[in-house]
């Protein structure tokens, strides 16, 4: 017989104190069933003459971390979170929130609607709605300024930063920090409070009217200057806090609700929410049905260059023990200098204390002896992108690594299955492609070949999560997946840009158009930063299709010694303190000569032409990756582009951008932009996906 589902809220009692206990794992999200349960339990407790005080608490590891984001695009279901918070605040008996874990977003709004707040020592609190392009919509913009003052409230809401229980107590957000058992101390505290204390009646923090209004005006000006087109939600937050200073709370709540509804329907919010769900969908590896991650306590990294050192720093920052192997003493010293310099910069900037930096380095073992990797649970090869070098090294690693260790290669371009075979342990071998700088970039691609075991794949996923990375699975099989997802997309991006460069655009024009779109840097600025010789060496090794258009401009630059920032000149010249560089006139002259030699008559491109052509190339490449089974879902491609390549997060990603654009518009832009270029578009699979299989595309993107 099937058991009835457990109700997510129940009413308990300890003496004269009623406990409304939320039990909705994993994070006690405040969906409609939870809201209904809290309201029913609260009303029952209020109706009971034996109840003197009420505690809102939660089972599991955390107080509610927020509303159910999936409801944002649904018809409203009552009670809304705002209605529930008003019900809590208007209760005629004292209501105490007992906060453990994290109280975020709607969870903190619920706690602020209570009359008193008791917190565990380890709890953290915040209102991170801005990260989703919205604002607190259940009274947070009105109650937080009343509790801690408008300036601190703006700091919390405009950054999304969390505060510790200790800080929360100092600024007046919580009344008591429990030293031991939160629930026990909350019940004891409840027995000492005699009457409700509605947050709406807190006015002490709002008395400096003129001073606070000036501070709000200054913050509004700063938001406009710093964020420009992306300032909708931040400006609405400022406006709502201003309302808290000027208006009764009932009116302020109406202002807040109107602002929330405007934000939640904005393109920016939809993009940010899509990116949020894309990250969570990417973590759903099919191997989870077969295996769980093995514990990784020590990682060995072979190769101490920029990539290997970056991976080592990321692991050390996460509390793991690291063995870093360089093949000679010079390499060991260089790696030590590189890692030491990172910690010196972090300490100088106040990101770490000297004690924290020293403690991290105690977990680092630097050596030139490969046989010292035997204690590692995961071994990562991170040497130069050369098949013979990597294959030989991986074979040696397999000799010294313990039998249960997972072996990973940082390649994304070379044949993963062949490299795995070189170890003699292909089932234990996977790809782990970190993006530079590995200590900071949040993306890791997990390359999965057909012989990789579920255990190895899940251990790699667990390791990436332990480092705080967003891991995306790339299935490398049957000749598909060279370049995984990220570099396959990047090649299409660069190819589209290079064709426009050859046909009449300039590097600075293309870069400017992509910065205006929302990228931090354009493709040629990135090429100069990375070094043109690296991509050049890769192109020389890769066979070229006779049908594909090839643009030789970058090759000619390398042959001239123009390698980018490392040589002082590339597409830009880097002298006289110009960190971003100024256009290289010699390159422009060379491009003009190149066009003349090939008989190309330059034509003009608008910024929209540049943006659309590059976006269509990216989406087209993404469609191919989906069709080949390299990427599991469109949102995985979005996660890769947002985290790995700086695609504007507020747009959600290129596949969401394509899905938001009607096929007829795409078709019209294709016919204008590139009808003559089969190497870019081929049979235009993106049109097929969006025009003929639109529902399938949407289904794949469902979380």
From TrEMBL:
Subcellular location: Peroxisome
CDD domains in alphabetical order: crotonase-like
Reactions catalysed: a (3S)-3-hydroxyacyl-CoA + NAD(+) = a 3-oxoacyl-CoA + NADH + H(+)
Domain 3-hydroxyacyl-CoA dehydrogenase NAD binding: 299-474
Family according to the record: Belongs to the enoyl-CoA hydratase/isomerase family. In the N-terminal section; belongs to the enoyl-CoA hydratase/isomerase family.
Subunit structure: Monomer.
Full protein name: Short chain enoyl-CoA hydratase /3-hydroxyacyl-CoA dehydrogenase
Source organism of this protein record: Litoreibacter meonggei
